[in-house]
Design a protein that fits this description.
This protein has 90 residues and is mostly helical. The chain contains four helices and two strands, in the order E-H-H-E-H-H. Helix 1 packs antiparallel against helix 2. The protein is flat and about 50 Å long.
Amino acid sequence: MNADVIVGPIANDTLFDTLGIISSGYLSTEEALKLLKIGPEYTQVVIKTEKAAANLRFIGSERIEKIEATAMQQEQDAYLEAFAKELDFP
């Protein structure tokens, strides 16, 4: 594919964990696909060419003093709960 910029989902640890579960024979491909649909989806942007990089413009910055760990933990807990439910774990 010839593209200057690619925007798409990030392959996070969930993808690698799920592939490991498939290769162990514990899940079918269909079951694994259900698991991959659980949880948050994050997007990444990849600048592939000099042409794309040349069109970047600085528009501002913001200092982040403290990252709210509680929100991240709540997101992780919700994901693990949904994952366990999909696998029928208590």
